[in-house]
Each structure stands twice: as structure tokens, then as C-alpha cells.
Fold:
Amino acid sequence: MKFNAPKRSLFRFRQVFRKWAPSSLAILPLIAAAQMPNVGKFTAAPDEWLLSNGQVWHHHTGVAKIVSPLTFRAPLDAEKAIVEKAQRIFERSSAKSMALFDGSQVVWIAYKPPASNSKRFLSFSVGKTVTAMAVGKAICEGKLSLNQTVSMVIPELAGTDLGAATIQDLLKMSSGTWQGNPDSTIVSPEQDQRIRNGSMNYLDLLATQQVNSAEKNFAGVARKPGDYFIYRSTDPLALGVALNKVTGTTYARYVEREVLLPAGIERSAIIGQDRSGYGASDGNVRLHMEDWIRFAIWVKAHQTGTGCFSDYVRAASSRQIQNVSQKSGFGFESYGYQTWTEHIKRRDSYWAVGHGGQRIGWNHANARMLIAFSNVENYMMDLYDLYSEWAAIPEDKPGSSTPLFKQ
Structure:
């Protein structure tokens, strides 16, 4: 993930953290793993990143001509205890905004200063699922196919191990290439600065030998594409470059046109890109909370719909490859297309997951969804438990499966 966060002091974040962290954690230093901050053993997303508006060269979108409607209602009797539990989790955790909703009906939403409904929230790797949706659109338009090799789409990568992977391998995080830094990023500090100043772009990064060469397994044998899941930024960044190559526009403009505007966003979004127009497609999308809700509803509407793109979303939200090592995505048994699947707390769920505690949760049985944006990823099991209870409310309860907006 590449976030282009402002280079500001994290002192304020430390102060906020001490207000809610357990005393045993409050004294731990803020530690950066490669480009990404941690607090102790937990990944972190300080307000300076989570609520920022990115860089001047990032793309600002338009808004939908027809905004997808949201209805705000009080919880039903069967929902009240779960909403009260959500409120307790929200108050004692680092969460900055959370929502529970059933189709297009928002049952509960909360903000914690400095977050508010006027702020955009950075996706972190939730943006990988946004990238997956854009790739699905390109596939259904005939611009890409799952079995195309990367070198067919990005000729600059011909002759490399990354070039031998297919689009489907990239979607499954199984290109077989270098696993990257400990936090899944693939840039060095020097490369990061070059991307920022425009002397390097994401295609240049993918063309480096370290990034595009096959990773060796424990036996010293080079991994083949498609065989093994390793979570890294290489695969979604390559998908973003592929979209530039085949759509006749930039990743950001394509995501705007084919994902965010169809989702009916009400306010302008910001989509990360480098100065050459290649997308930060491993996780750099900023939306207001209500527009993140609209995106989640749009995904769910297609997961239950018909046609090419709905077939794709069903594949994206289902097991495509096993998460054998559990090095990343602890608790998720498998991965779909740039989307986590089969969490142990609810095995029919699928999730967009971002560094520091950013989550969107869906399930295959009904239209109950959850979103959370957070500073520190130290309460996720509570969140997964909450979603399991939310999703388990019986279908025969009035209003428990409200219609999604029309596609």
C-alpha cells in the first residue's frame, strides 16, 4: 500500500491513542514497519493519514448524477442489543467511524472527533477491493480477461516472472513474485521519494528486478504463478497499470467512471495516483463515510444480481485460493479477488480489509453490512464477533433484509 501521507508529527496521534489504549499499551512507542506505522504489535492509521486529503496530484472525482438514496432508521427490537454492543465497542476502541446497515437502510452510524460526516476516510487496503471491482468491469467490457498474461497487457514486463502471471493470478495475490517488505509494501524509502517527486512511477517500480522476480520457497525452488497466496502490493499495482493500458484512461478515472459514479456517490472522492497517472491501486481511495456505505451496497447489489459483472463479484467474494500461511489476514481461511473470504467468525462472509483497522463486511446470506474506520487494529476480533451477530439476525424479522438500490 502506498498512501503518500503528509510528513507531519505523530505526537497528536500518540495523545489520542493514550485516551483509549490499555495502560499496558499506551507506553509503547509508535514503530514504523517500512512505510507503515504500528503501535506495538498492532497496525496503526493516525488521523494525519486516515482523515487527510492526499496529495495535489491525486485525482478528485465528480459526483453521481443520481445519488443512491440512503434511509436512516431506528433499530428494530431484534437489532437493539447489537446496536448497543456496537456503541460500546465504538466508545472504548480506536474506531473513528462505524456503521451497521441493512441494504440501503442505515440502522446505526457513529463518528468520533476529529472524524465527522464532512471528512473523507482513507481506504488503505480496502482500496484493493475497489481495484478488484474496476478489473471486473474491464473484464466484462472485453478489455481484459482472466487468462491473459501480464506481459500481454503490460509489454514492459515481458520476459519477467511477473509478466508470466495472469490477470487472475494477480487478483488472487498469487503472482509468485517477491513478497515485499514486512508490511506488504514494495518500495524502499528512496523509491518512495522518487515516486513522490515524479522521477519514478509505479510501472518503473514493477519493472525493477527485485519486484518482478519469482520468490523462492523453503526448498529454494522458484514459486510458479497461481500456486501460492502471498499478500503484497505488487499484484494490485500491476492490475492498476493494466487498467491504464487497456481502458484508454487512467486507473483513477476508470474507477470513477465504472465504480464510484455507478455506486451513486454524493460527494467528490479522491483517488491516489502517481504523477504519471498510474494508480495507487493497492489502497488509496478517499470517500466520505456515507459514500463508503453506498459503495458497499453497490457491491452487494451485484453479488446478488445477474449478468457478467454479478458473476464476477460472486467469484471475487468467494474462495479462489487458500490462505495457507496466515501470515497476513489471520482468521481468514481464503482469498477471493483482492478481497478476503471465509472468516472463522462467519464463514460465508467476505471483507475489504485495510491497515490500521479499516473494514467492510458483507455476507452471502443477506444484505446486512458493517463498515469501520479506525486508528489502531487492536479490536478486530470484537468487530468480527459484532458482525457475526449482526449478520445472523433472522431473515423473517420485519425489515431485516431491505431492498438494495436499483442497479
Observations:
- DSSP finds 16 helices and 16 strands in the chain.
- Residues 282 and 358 are 14 Å apart (CA to CA).
- The longest strand covers residues 346-354.
